[in-house]
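Just curious: can you write whichever protein you like plus the matching structure tokens?

***
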Amino acid sequence: MCRLASMVSIGNKSYLILDYLLDAFQEAAYNDPFIPKGPKVNVHRDGWGAILHGKFKNDFYSTFIKSYRPAFNDPTYKIFKEDYKDANELFLIVHARKASPGTAYGVSFLHPFEKILSDSRVFYLAHNGTIHRREILRNEWKINNLTLSDTQLLVQRIADVATQTGQQIFDAVHDTVIELGKREDIPVSAIQLLVMELEKENTRLQALSLIKNSNAKTEEQRKINVRYYKLYAIRLSLDNTAAFSVMSSTVLLKLKEKYSDVIEIDYEIELPEWSEIQEINEDFVDMNKTDVLKHLVKLKL
């Protein structure tokens, strides 16, 4: 169970919005009220990672970073973004991990994962949720590496589908999740994905949410899971700068608690279960709520 957030921001105050968002994300990693309290329970302490891409007047920079230290106790978390103060466009995915019981620990298993295809396309993927019975998927997908986590298997499958079929990466993501969503023999708590396809001048994001709650043993746990797993699409504005973000429920909660008097939240949209937003780019930061809802695609099973 993890926390994640993405952002596309346009304008000369992009860095300030980034700063506020990352601060709220850090707070969400430290204290998650949507998880029952207890020692080490409501904390996302198993490392963090981010991909940050910035457009400047005449240049582009990208930073891909992972740390085994928790986001709320890592000095690099505060400084990795410093080179982006003068960027006029920013693209971000950030992820804080709370490892499922019995899963591997270490930097290699932190999100987002980077994948470079044979045709030089590059994408990054962060996941919240758990996919069980990975041995079945390894056999069917002909992926022989026994050390891969559920998310790494998913990344490899998406890459294979995109390469073998010539599909766009976002379409391969969509089709792979639909395939898993139909399976009754593969228990899934949720498949919530943020995906960035990175190109210097045409970077874009995708957000996708599938919630199945197959690990909920009681109705009360199901309700907690639904609230915890919710993703929100929001539009933020600060003076002449606008940002579009998709984020976990806890991140939105912390953002509103800490910065509602500093930045305007023009709207927030609760993504329904089985939903998708494709190709989040510069256009999204100017869209009103009605326009965004038109781009919210319900996944068909």
